[in-house]
Amino acid sequence: MLLTTADLRARLLASSGRVEDIGAGDHVLNPDWQWLKKQPDPREAAVLVPIIDRPEAASVLLTTRAGHLRQHSGQIAFPGGRIDPEDASPEAAALREAQEEVGLAPEFVETIGRLPSYISGTGFRITPVLSIVQPGFSLSINPDEVEDAFEVPLGFLMDVANHRLESRHLRGAERHFYTMPFGDRYIWGVTAGILRVLYERFYA
Prior knowledge:
Its cofactor is Mn(2+); Mg(2+). By secondary structure, the chain is an alpha+beta fold.
Protein backbone atom coordinates (compact mmCIF):
# COMPACT_ATOMS: atom_id res chain seq x y z
CA MET A 1 0.00 0.00 0.00
CA LEU A 2 1.56 3.27 -1.18
CA LEU A 3 0.51 6.40 0.68
CA THR A 4 1.52 9.99 0.01
CA THR A 5 1.63 13.18 2.04
CA ALA A 6 -0.93 14.69 -0.36
CA ASP A 7 -3.31 11.92 0.63
CA LEU A 8 -2.62 12.60 4.31
CA ARG A 9 -3.33 16.31 3.84
CA ALA A 10 -6.64 15.44 2.17
CA ARG A 11 -7.61 13.15 5.03
CA LEU A 12 -6.68 15.83 7.56
CA LEU A 13 -8.72 18.42 5.67
CA ALA A 14 -11.70 16.08 5.55
CA SER A 15 -11.56 15.84 9.34
CA SER A 16 -11.61 19.66 9.56
CA GLY A 17 -8.53 19.48 11.76
CA ARG A 18 -10.54 18.27 14.74
CA VAL A 19 -8.74 16.44 17.53
CA GLU A 20 -11.32 14.58 19.57
CA ASP A 21 -10.44 13.21 22.98
CA ILE A 22 -10.71 9.54 22.15
CA GLY A 23 -9.05 8.42 25.36
CA ALA A 24 -5.85 7.24 23.69
CA GLY A 25 -3.23 5.59 25.85
CA ASP A 26 -1.83 2.42 27.35
CA HIS A 27 -4.99 2.06 29.46
CA VAL A 28 -7.12 1.33 26.37
CA LEU A 29 -5.82 -2.24 26.13
CA ASN A 30 -5.31 -2.62 29.88
CA PRO A 31 -8.53 -1.98 31.85
CA ASP A 32 -6.76 -2.03 35.21
CA TRP A 33 -4.82 1.06 34.13
CA GLN A 34 -7.92 3.27 33.92
CA TRP A 35 -6.49 5.34 36.77
CA LEU A 36 -4.03 6.79 34.25
CA LYS A 37 -6.84 8.95 32.84
CA LYS A 38 -7.55 10.45 36.26
CA GLN A 39 -4.07 11.66 37.15
CA PRO A 40 -4.47 15.22 38.49
CA ASP A 41 -1.14 16.48 37.18
CA PRO A 42 0.37 14.25 34.48
CA ARG A 43 3.84 14.99 33.20
CA GLU A 44 3.64 16.69 29.81
CA ALA A 45 5.63 15.51 26.80
CA ALA A 46 5.52 15.91 23.04
CA VAL A 47 6.73 13.80 20.15
CA LEU A 48 7.17 14.67 16.50
CA VAL A 49 5.40 12.30 14.10
CA PRO A 50 7.56 13.09 11.04
CA ILE A 51 6.04 12.00 7.73
CA ILE A 52 8.69 12.40 5.03
CA ASP A 53 7.43 13.58 1.64
CA ARG A 54 9.30 11.07 -0.49
CA PRO A 55 8.34 11.26 -4.20
CA GLU A 56 7.56 7.56 -4.50
CA ALA A 57 5.67 7.18 -1.22
CA ALA A 58 5.66 8.78 2.22
CA SER A 59 7.74 7.34 5.04
CA VAL A 60 7.92 7.84 8.80
CA LEU A 61 11.15 8.80 10.56
CA LEU A 62 11.77 6.82 13.74
CA THR A 63 14.69 6.50 16.13
CA THR A 64 16.25 3.79 18.25
CA ARG A 65 16.91 5.07 21.74
CA ALA A 66 20.47 4.74 23.02
CA GLY A 67 21.22 1.54 24.88
CA HIS A 68 22.67 3.27 27.96
CA LEU A 69 19.54 5.28 28.77
CA ARG A 70 17.88 4.56 32.09
CA GLN A 71 14.37 4.28 30.65
CA HIS A 72 13.20 2.63 27.43
CA SER A 73 16.77 1.96 26.30
CA GLY A 74 17.04 0.41 22.85
CA GLN A 75 13.36 0.94 22.09
CA ILE A 76 12.06 2.46 18.88
CA ALA A 77 10.57 5.91 19.38
CA PHE A 78 9.51 9.13 17.75
CA PRO A 79 11.80 12.10 18.35
CA GLY A 80 10.49 13.84 21.45
CA GLY A 81 10.57 14.28 25.19
CA ARG A 82 9.38 16.43 28.08
CA ILE A 83 7.85 19.82 27.41
CA ASP A 84 10.17 22.32 29.09
CA PRO A 85 8.92 25.56 30.69
CA GLU A 86 10.61 27.59 27.95
CA ASP A 87 8.80 25.69 25.17
CA ALA A 88 6.03 27.87 23.76
CA SER A 89 3.91 24.88 22.75
CA PRO A 90 3.99 21.10 22.22
CA GLU A 91 5.00 21.86 18.62
CA ALA A 92 7.98 23.88 19.83
CA ALA A 93 9.01 21.08 22.19
CA ALA A 94 8.71 18.40 19.50
CA LEU A 95 10.75 20.42 17.00
CA ARG A 96 13.40 21.18 19.61
CA GLU A 97 13.72 17.54 20.62
CA ALA A 98 13.94 16.39 17.00
CA GLN A 99 16.77 18.82 16.38
CA GLU A 100 18.56 17.82 19.59
CA GLU A 101 18.19 14.07 19.04
CA VAL A 102 18.76 13.62 15.31
CA GLY A 103 19.68 17.07 13.98
CA LEU A 104 16.46 17.51 12.01
CA ALA A 105 16.41 21.21 11.12
CA PRO A 106 13.02 22.88 11.76
CA GLU A 107 13.03 24.61 8.36
CA PHE A 108 12.39 21.23 6.72
CA VAL A 109 9.41 20.49 8.99
CA GLU A 110 5.82 21.66 8.60
CA THR A 111 3.58 20.88 11.55
CA ILE A 112 0.07 20.15 10.27
CA GLY A 113 -1.87 19.14 13.35
CA ARG A 114 -1.99 17.08 16.51
CA LEU A 115 -3.19 13.60 17.27
CA PRO A 116 -5.18 13.04 20.48
CA SER A 117 -3.03 13.07 23.60
CA TYR A 118 -1.65 9.66 24.52
CA ILE A 119 -1.38 8.65 28.18
CA SER A 120 1.59 6.36 28.78
CA GLY A 121 1.91 3.73 31.47
CA THR A 122 4.81 5.74 32.91
CA GLY A 123 2.50 8.68 33.65
CA PHE A 124 3.20 11.02 30.74
CA ARG A 125 0.54 12.81 28.73
CA ILE A 126 2.11 12.87 25.28
CA THR A 127 1.05 15.26 22.53
CA PRO A 128 1.84 13.72 19.12
CA VAL A 129 2.61 16.53 16.66
CA LEU A 130 1.84 15.46 13.12
CA SER A 131 4.26 16.92 10.59
CA ILE A 132 5.43 16.70 7.01
CA VAL A 133 9.17 16.74 6.38
CA GLN A 134 10.53 17.89 3.04
CA PRO A 135 13.39 15.88 1.48
CA GLY A 136 16.86 17.38 1.43
CA PHE A 137 17.44 17.34 5.17
CA SER A 138 20.48 15.75 6.75
CA LEU A 139 20.60 14.09 10.15
CA SER A 140 23.20 14.31 12.90
CA ILE A 141 22.60 11.61 15.49
CA ASN A 142 23.16 12.57 19.13
CA PRO A 143 24.71 9.41 20.65
CA ASP A 144 23.79 10.56 24.15
CA GLU A 145 20.13 10.00 23.28
CA VAL A 146 19.81 8.03 20.06
CA GLU A 147 21.50 4.99 18.56
CA ASP A 148 20.21 5.50 15.02
CA ALA A 149 17.36 6.83 12.90
CA PHE A 150 15.57 5.07 10.07
CA GLU A 151 12.50 5.29 7.85
CA VAL A 152 9.49 2.99 7.55
CA PRO A 153 6.97 3.33 4.70
CA LEU A 154 3.79 5.02 5.90
CA GLY A 155 1.82 2.48 3.88
CA PHE A 156 3.32 -0.37 5.90
CA LEU A 157 2.48 1.27 9.21
CA MET A 158 -1.08 2.15 8.17
CA ASP A 159 -1.82 -1.38 6.91
CA VAL A 160 -3.83 -3.06 9.66
CA ALA A 161 -2.47 -6.42 8.53
CA ASN A 162 0.86 -5.33 10.04
CA HIS A 163 -0.64 -4.50 13.45
CA ARG A 164 -0.29 -7.22 16.06
CA LEU A 165 -1.74 -7.36 19.54
CA GLU A 166 0.76 -8.92 21.94
CA SER A 167 1.27 -9.13 25.69
CA ARG A 168 4.03 -9.42 28.28
CA HIS A 169 4.15 -9.98 32.00
CA LEU A 170 5.10 -6.53 33.32
CA ARG A 171 4.87 -5.10 36.83
CA GLY A 172 3.20 -8.22 38.14
CA ALA A 173 0.45 -8.43 35.55
CA GLU A 174 -0.20 -9.27 31.92
CA ARG A 175 0.08 -6.12 29.81
CA HIS A 176 -1.32 -5.83 26.29
CA PHE A 177 0.08 -3.59 23.55
CA TYR A 178 0.34 -3.17 19.79
CA THR A 179 3.41 -4.13 17.80
CA MET A 180 4.35 -3.45 14.18
CA PRO A 181 7.48 -5.49 13.43
CA PHE A 182 9.37 -4.18 10.40
CA GLY A 183 12.24 -6.44 9.38
CA ASP A 184 14.51 -6.60 12.41
CA ARG A 185 12.91 -3.47 13.90
CA TYR A 186 10.45 -4.20 16.71
CA ILE A 187 8.06 -1.26 16.95
CA TRP A 188 5.89 -1.55 20.05
CA GLY A 189 4.58 0.20 23.15
CA VAL A 190 3.80 3.92 23.03
CA THR A 191 5.24 4.34 19.52
CA ALA A 192 3.05 1.59 18.09
CA GLY A 193 0.14 2.91 20.15
CA ILE A 194 0.45 6.39 18.62
CA LEU A 195 0.77 4.91 15.13
CA ARG A 196 -2.38 2.93 15.82
CA VAL A 197 -4.15 6.18 16.78
CA LEU A 198 -2.98 7.70 13.47
CA TYR A 199 -4.43 4.68 11.67
CA GLU A 200 -7.75 4.80 13.52
CA ARG A 201 -8.12 8.54 12.98
CA PHE A 202 -7.30 8.75 9.27
CA TYR A 203 -6.94 5.33 7.65
CA ALA A 204 -9.38 2.86 9.26
